[in-house]
Amino acid sequence: MSKIPQEALQAFCAIARHRSFTRAGAELGVSASALSQTMRQLEASLGVPLLTRTTRQVAPTEAGEALLARLAPALDEIRAALDEAGQAQGQPVGRLRVTLPHTAAQLLFYPALADFAARHSRLRLELDVNNGLVDIVAQRFDAGVRFGEALQPGMQALPVSRPLRFVVAAAPDYLSRRGAPQHPEDLVGHACLGYRFGGGQHYRWQFVRDGLPLQLAVDGPLIANDNTAMLHAALGGAGLAYLAEPLIEPWVAAGRLAVVLDGYAPPAEALYLYYPHRPQQPAKLRALIAFLRERAGLPQA
What we know:
Layout: H1 6-18, H2 21-28, H3 32-46, E1 51-53, E2 58-60, H4 62-87, E3 94-100, H5 102-109, H6 113-119, E4 123-129, E5 143-147, E6 156-159, E7 166-170, H7 172-178, E8 192-195, E9 205-209, E10 212-216, E11 222-224, H8 227-235, E12 240-244, H9 245-253, E13 258-260, E14 271-275, H10 283-296
């Protein structure tokens, strides 16, 4: 067997993880055709097919699955060791993959991206904005951000935001036409802008009444999987939206939106950054934690 370059093994892992030459190429910064050639050479060197290719998808063969199970953790360890070696030069380096929901992206990350890049110029931050539940170990993420109730079991976690509330809001024009709901049950007669998770589940709006949680299914003219769509629809007077309070504060201050059912809003909760337990936390992850907690005004962990 001829010497196999590490780049070929990394390419195989990326293709197997994404089930796509195109998406793997985007991650690695090479063309799909170059990856295809690399895989042909790797399979020829090993003497076994590692991938099953069709016109619609790519999937590991049985031999490919066996190789991936042992190879992916080893490559992660090599990458972490090289990154840690680079830290000795005084700055975190390498790729930092984070999965997070839209709310966290809009409130914590998007306003801070330029500042983070300026502080950590040798880090490449890769964001997967995804409201679904993601197995960060299986998907090879360094960390995830979620609200406390949605944290992946068995992970270490630290708050990276102040507690925030979700509230119902609408444009004054809508409220003048339809009236403001006084109780959660009044939403049955209103145009509610709904949210649907990636798996198809329709989100139920959360309230608290007499100290007890209350969940209500709502209906209206729009269902989306992105709260930006609901915000813009609410600003245009299309209906009531259920959104994180910090996201709408500028619009409330400007008189473009008004909060209703405020007395029924559920308790505020923080966003957490979570990650697998390791004997020594990677410097790049420590850098992100310190950065987010600093911006949130939280003490350093």
